[in-house]
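Mods, move this if it's the wrong board.
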Amino acid sequence: MGSRLLLALLWLVHWLPLPALAALGRGLGGALYRLAGSRRRIALRNLELCFPGMPAEQRDALTREHFHWLGRSLLERGLLWYASAERLKRLIHVEGDPKLAERSERAVMWLVPHFMALDVAGVATLLYQNHPAGSIYQQQSDPVMDAAMRRGRLRFGDNAEIFPRSDSAKPLIRAIKKGHAFFNLPDMDFGERDAAFVPFFGVPAATLLAPSRMAYALNMVVQPVVAEILPGGQGYRVRFLEPWTHFPSADALADTAAMNRWIEDEIRRNPAQYLWVHKRFKTRPAGEAGLY
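Not the wrong board. Structure tokens:
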């Protein structure tokens, strides 16, 4: 399906009531479970590594449910990109303090792990507060899709900016030094560069040290944010949690281990909505065999 046709489909379906859109998304997820064999195997392997004591049939059921949420997250992207601010505010239920960045004398880092409603959290940071903010994104090879993603993520943020991951970090750092907030995604495997092998459910995982190092060097306040998709037509929940007092510290490795333990706790609360189709353990310590 061409990118323009796909975008047209997302625009069309965003007009549907959320219960109907959710049902379509779950159907899409069911189809992806059957058709996307490589991603299904990655998810099953991740669950085997992270929950070795879980019976195989339970891991399979969890993977099926994960794909249902994945299908919803893909199809409901149209809501985030095209729905009005008024409709989104009716659908996004915010808990905690979304306006910390407006009041804080120090720049705020929102620490946001990869749950299915990750992009909902991004919209919430723009809809519910008015403060300059930036984030990093993976630039798309398709220029049409890349432009659509940029428009979708920035349409509520007159003073927001996104920085391609492939670019230098200097513009982002300059923005943070001016007091801008930073929407940071800390839990993907980007290789060994600027990373350490830190336990994630007991498995050494290449984990970026940058959240701790950046927050410490720039004297930032770190506020964790977790988003979830609610069943059926109930919408979404975004929790702006209390700022951490223990993070950052001068010990980036200890900070990163503590961050992973927190992400583990959040996954245990809502395991089906974590991004299991990502090869979280792709990078291995020297001499260690691959896990996939």
